[in-house]
Fold this sequence. Notes:
This protein is mainly alpha-helical. Helix content is about 55%, strand content about 10%. The protein contains eight helices and seven strands. The chain has helices at about 20-30, 35-45, 60-65, 70-90, 125-145, 150-160, 170-180, 180-210; strands spanning about 10, 55, 90-95, 100-105, 110, 115-120, 120-125. The strands form three sheets. A three-stranded antiparallel beta sheet has the order 2-4-5. Helix 4 (about 70-90) packs antiparallel against helix 5 and helix 5 runs antiparallel to helix 6 (about 150-160). Residues about 15-40 have low confidence and may be disordered.
Amino acid sequence: xxxxxxxxxxxxxxxxxxxxxxxxxxxxxxxxxxxxxxxxxxxxxxxxxxxxxxxxxxxxxxxxxxxxxxxxxxxxxxxxxxxxxxxxxxxxxxxxxxxxxxxxxxxxxxxxxxxxxxxxxxxxxxxxxxxxxxxxxxxxxxxxxxxxxxxxxxxxxxxxxxxxxxxxxxxxxxxxxxxxxxxxxxxxxxxxxxxxxxxxxxxxxxxxxxxx
Length: 212
């Protein structure tokens, strides 16, 4: 992972989290617990794996022309969730790239491999930015493989790949919002349209309603 040349503010690991999984992560880091088994159980929901059998790497799928819309969707959702999990828990890992992302052969579940069990005390902004840049590289290759010219996703990939880290997305939640931007916009339009129709109906009832 990249390291900033100048001292950068450190992001402390979250110590107070919600949900059974996050509490389990905290317990798994305490002495006297089965850290290895607990970590494996907790990572399943985030799509993180340390071993891989009977699975296919994204780089192979790209080479064979087998990347489809479903795989692309999982890259923009499940992979981002896995990166969020890794960063939230400051897990040491190799750079995320097509070679470290696999899909199960039958149901095409996305998994991230080459992820260790060690956790850092702090995560620097440079570390987080490097993960986002690497995601942009993966997304760019997947979009090219599927032939998808979606301008929103292309813009997301380009911003992730900016040479200036300050122009990239600040963090994973910011990235997730950008990816979901199109669907959110459509939702807002539907809500506004619904409210406008209701206002017209209520106005009509107020005008033409028979006097009591």
